[in-house]
Amino acid sequence: MASVTLEGTSKKFGDFIAVRNMNLAIKDAEFVAILGPSGCGKSTTMNMIAGIEDVSAGTIRFDGTDVTNVPMKKRGVGFVFQNYAIFTHLSVRKNLAFGLEVRGEEQAEIDRRVGEMAEFMELSHRIDAPSVSLSVNELQKLAIGRSAIVEPSIFLLDEPLSNLDSAFRERMRSDLRQLQRSLNQTMIYVTHDQIEAMGLADRIAVMDHATLQQFDTPENIYSRPENTFVAGFIGAPSMNLVRVRIAERGGAMFADLAGREADAVALDERLARQARASGAAALTFGFRPEHLRISDQPGNGSLAAQVVLVELVGRRKHVHFSTGQTGFVGSFDRGVSLRPGEAAHVSIDLRKSHLFDPETGLRLRLGEED
Ligand code: ATP
User: Fold this and answer.
1) Cβ within 8 Å of residue 56, ≥6 positions away
2) By alpha-carbon position, which residue is closest to atom 27 of ligand 1?
3) Domains of the chain, first to last
4) Which among 79, 158, 159, 175 is most buried, taking Cβ atoms within 10 Å?
């Protein structure tokens, strides 16, 4: 069992706040990604959990036991850094055996586990090679294997795949997930790569400016972002966040994206309730590029917009639209036929769209189900 709990945990470097009042309850055997832009405090959070950095305020608990002032060596966590700390003068075998030897395991047991880990990491054919002769990919596998072999109940990885080429990264991602499941570990994984976080983690802690923005499942982070930061950070292209005027006509609520009453989007019941309850004259309307449809004809709630730019991205077509007043992006099957300069009628899937408070950035919601 190894749950990890941060309560009001903060880190200051002089007057600079690197992590502010972090509350995070990570469950035993959970795979959690800490995701956010450069400098938001991900590594500092991780270093406090590992005991590399002391905390300025708050507590850290492992399985309910306060470890805030327990030195790193006694916390018993495994840690893999971005810059792998390998003993390059030692062989692959010696590097893998290191942690087990320090713990005084019997030689037969060391040999067995080193053999197994070398096999899992596909390093068996290099087992007696000096580490200095390994490729970057092999070195990273060795770094992960060397920490994993002692089977720490808490395993921390800070951007462990960032030096690797993309094909190999994909392989390593699934290997890591498999390793975590087979060892039943609590794994905390720092990354600035949303694809990595979305694909690997049970839950994602999204950070920005030293502050936790949302801690939730990948599905909820994508479809129910807490605020405009999370909404805009996740997804490629990211969610359209458009300032709209809210108007009530004939008992219905409208969001005006284009500054033209005739093109205002009639809100569905859920969004209309939220807009009405907020009482605001202007809100931020959030809709994902993949939740747009092209209509053949005007009307039926569609919005007139001009095609500005069309980009082919893999099997998708990203289309930039302008309403004259505002711009937004749609993502479609590459078969959709749209050319720059053309007029289009675009409809938005309102069930998957959100309204946000433009001042606080928070998503409007009336109840838990919203
Ligand atoms: P990256 O993805 O670039 O590694 P990060 O989210 O991991 O970023 P941190 O390394 O945690 O960010 O750093 C958060 C902030 O704290 C940064 O502005 C960084 O410059 C600052 N910082 C980190 N360590 C120190 C230190 N020892 N002294 C002073 N400032 C520091």
Assistant:
1) 10, 11, 12
2) 13
3) 4-232 (3.40.50.300), 238-356 (2.40.50.140)
4) 79
